[in-house]
Specification:
Distance between the termini: 22 Å
Number of domains: 1
CATH topology: TIM Barrel
Strand order of the largest sheet: 1-2-3-4-7-10-11-12
Mean pLDDT: 92
Radius of gyration: 19 Å
Order of helices and strands: EHEHEHEEEHHEEEHEHHEHEH
Number of helices: 10
CATH class: Alpha Beta
CATH architecture: Alpha-Beta Barrel
Strand content: 15-25%
Shape: globular
Low-confidence stretches: none
CATH superfamily: Divalent-metal-dependent TIM barrel enzymes
Oligomer: single chain
Largest sheet: 8 strands, parallel, barrel
Length: 287
């Protein structure tokens, strides 16, 4: 079975959707993962269907918004947002919807202005617990999953470090807890922030993983597959050996793709896809 390799539009969130689709088709990806964000073009099924038809490239995964959507017609409530994401995925033919667990804290951000400069400040404020979203995920997600063929996959999240301290911005980070949910998205760079063995982590959740967010980690997240210390080749080999039937999404950063120059972007995407396809034993098909 051939494992589809797709690219997340979040890798180039500073580009318009048409440009990302055009690049993905030219490079030869099997499809895209749509990151739903503040832009109306990512939220409306009819527009998305037109873009898919224009570039003959499917949306195979949808990433539900992970920040509060206070603009447009998208619901701000996180549970309603997940349900809306599933409805959109059903309409455009996506297989997977990626969701985030509840946050442990929120960030209060602002600008501090002095006579000489203006700088951004960010203060974390702790939350009491996983809240309504956490209760819904633990008690109602499985029943909702039974109503749709789209697989709703909870993503493992990164940790943050303050000197020797490891801070957890999100709930549900332990593999034992993650295995309580029907499906998972394994994000490799998020495992990298924990400075633990990626393959061992994957082994603990393998039976639930139906989607991979693939990128490397070198102290910075979402790096090109060849720029970091994560054992991505053995991981992809493990997917082949285990007859993995899900998706592999390249989820990189605009910085790692050198997004200021579209020629560099195309080259980096092509080399990243070639890495995946070579490891998975599939020939790259540039168009």
């Amino acid at each position: 079975m051939t494992i589809p390799v797709i690219v997340s539009t979040g890798s180039l969130f500073n580009y318009d959707l048409d440009t990302v689709m055009k690049l993905a088709r030219e490079v030869g990806f099997d499809g895209i993962e749509l990151m739903i964000d503040w832009r109306r073009e990512t939220q409306h099924p009819a527009h998305l269907q037109a873009v898919v038809a224009r570039y003959d490239l499917p949306i195979l995964a949808v990433h539900s918004p992970f920040v509060r959507m206070d603009l447009g017609t998208w619901p701000a409530d996180p549970i309603a947002s997940i349900k809306q994401s599933v409805s959109l995925a059903e309409t455009v033919g996506a297989r997977v919807v990626v969701i985030h667990p509840p946050r442990r804290w929120v960030r209060l951000q602002g600008l501090l202005t002095t006579p000489n400069r203006t700088r951004k400040i960010s203060v974390p404020l702790p939350l009491a617990g996983p809240g309504r979203l956490g209760h819904w995920l633990q008690h109602d997600l499985a029943n909702f999953q039974a109503t749709t063929e789209v697989k709703i996959a909870l993503e493992n999240m990164p940790c943050r470090r303050l000197g020797p301290l490891r801070l957890e911005p999100h709930h549900y980070t332990d593999p034992i807890i993650l295995n309580r949910f029907p499906y998972l998205t394994l994000d490799t760079t998020h495992v990298g922030t924990r400075q633990i063995d990626l393959l061992h982590y994957f082994e603990q959740v393998e039976q639930r993983v139906i989607h991979i967010h693939l990128s490397n980690y070198n102290g910075a997240e979402h790096q090109l597959p060849t720029n970091g210390f994560l054992p991505l080749t053995p991981l992809l080999n493990r997917l082949l050996q285990g007859e993995f039937s899900g998706l592999v999404s390249l989820e990189l950063s605009p910085t790692s793709l050198q997004s200021e120059n579209e020629t560099f972007v195309k080259q980096n995407l092509r080399e990243s896809l070639a890495f995946c396809r070579h490891t998975l034993g599939v020939e790259v098909r540039s168009r």
